[in-house]
Design a protein that fits this description.
Layout lengths: L1 H31 L1
Length: 33
């Protein structure tokens, strides 16, 4: 099922992106304090 693999790749890409954004947000909040 190639489409299932595509969905999985997309989902893991989104998760990775969210992790990076979360890390940036944490750094920003740490600097503000």
């Amino acid at each position: 099922m190639p489409e299932a693999f595509g969905i999985h790749a997309l989902a893991s890409g989104i998760i990775q992106l969210n992790r990076q954004q979360l890390a940036l947000l944490v750094e920003l909040m740490a600097q503000l304090q």
